[in-house]
């Protein structure tokens, strides 16, 4: 299975490059910071969901996310952006808060609370930019979207080579606090996100991404994240684990067809010592991939109806160390298919059906109907 997933990912990505959206698509923060006028610029996005599991007696309605962004341009070189998110109506988070200084054309210095550039969705997670009511689960369990941490770094473009670059130093995931382990096998690194809230930093972590946009309609990305987890009890053997994450992604548009694919692999060191100390079941390797195809059917005006289908496979126990046995329920795959009805630029209705399985022998598939509203402005 491991070899199949790697070969599958390579086929997806290389096939996209051979079959030659704006390849420099902007997310919310980039769009706001690119505004020429000085002063305040506002933006936002929202996601409202309906989820119903097959066989359940009732569905669930949720204002999943309501997000407001505020940008302030001091002058031609200096800007500040903050993003405030309400989740499930009652949870409030600051998702981004950083200062950007344009040192020279195509070279920027950024510092503050920023998104870690890994894969596609962590940077481009506005609900009208992806298909399906919910975000891909590879970008939940392998890349713990929305993944943001405090740090400093640089970004820019090399237009002569059709490259966009980003490189940052961040604080890392918290792994051990108050005598307990934070990380676990079922969702990997997700619980360790510190999100800029009184973050502990015991080691600096390096994050970088390179995007290529030299072929019309095609964008290729390679991402890396390397370092150690964080704790204020570094003297304890097993309180930290090493993290090495690599990602490859591709997006391509050919007339009405759209394709995207992603492969993420994470290696964790010292998990045997960590599990011994904490009693957790953290795996030593996690990986995941997805491939998606969609087709646009233009309607009247700007309206577009887009059917899509996506396959995902993700495993937070690809490998384990010591005596820890791999948990087959952590090896999961999904097929999602549905419709996206764009009714305006930045507004859409969505519906999809999700069939999820795991590698446990004899286990039944979980089937879910999802519907929702997505806006971005």
TrEMBL record:
It comes from the Bacteria. Gene3D superfamilies: Porin (2.40.160.10). Keywords: Signal. InterPro entries: Porin_dom_sf. Residues 1-20 form the signal peptide. This is Phosphate-selective porin O and P. It comes from Lutibacter oricola.
